[in-house]
Every structure is written in structure tokens, then in C-alpha cells.
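INFO batch 0412 | record 1 of 1 | parsing
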Amino acid sequence: MEILLLQRSAGQGLYPGLWQLVSGKIRAGETAVGAARREVLEETGLRPRKMWTIPEVNAFYSASTDTVHLTPLFAVEVDPRASVTLSTEHQAFRWEGMDEARRALVWPANRRLLDLLEHDLWLRPELERWTRLHEP
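INFO prediction complete | emitting C-alpha cells
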């Protein structure tokens, strides 16, 4: 299994140069699953083939807005032959195995997400029937 890492553009006001996973916000009237699908497409040009919900919510605090954010987590499978097309938000990408992805990601929540993927979803296939999303 490989993980797609994206490097934020140098011109980004927030975390320039940071390696991260696909992330984003839910728009008004949009479901969390719809937002995840849209963000993957917008940030990478890739279309999800399969999606899973990760049975955990990430919480973080933004000092600039004095806001606590709760973020649902998803895993996405894409066509391995498809080409990545980055948005202007990112300047580089790379596919990495779990160990290298963990080393590249700064935020502990991102590393915990990889642990959940590896130990709970992929190593326990019986969970797929509860976490796999069947939306197109």
C-alpha cells in the first residue's frame, strides 16, 4: 500500500512546504463524503474508486480563528495508473510506503490516521463491511 503525500506550495500562507495528506473543508450543503471526494479531485486530479470511513474524528484547534475543528477521516483508493495533477495549493507530491509517510508527516493526528489504516482497516478485513462507503 502506498500513501499519497502532498507538499504545500511555498506561497501558501498556512504551513508552506509542509508534507500532508489531502485535506479540506465541507462546503454548505455538502456531505462529508462529498467533500472528501471533491477535495481528492481538486487537490490531485484523481477520482476515488473506493472509499472507506475511518472510525475516528480528528480534532484540532486553530489559534488564528480561536476555533476547534472536528474532521471526519476517510481512506481513498485510486487507479494506480492515473496521473496526479496538483492544484496551486501544492507544489510537489510523492507516493510513499507507510513507514516513510509516517516520517514525512509532521502532525501526530496524520500519523495516527496511518496507524488506523494499517492496523485496523487493512489488517482486519472484516471491518471493511462496516467502513466501506458504497456511494459512487
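INFO post-check: Residues 3-133 form a domain with the Nucleoside Triphosphate Pyrophosphohydrolase fold (CATH 3.90.79.10).
INFO record closed
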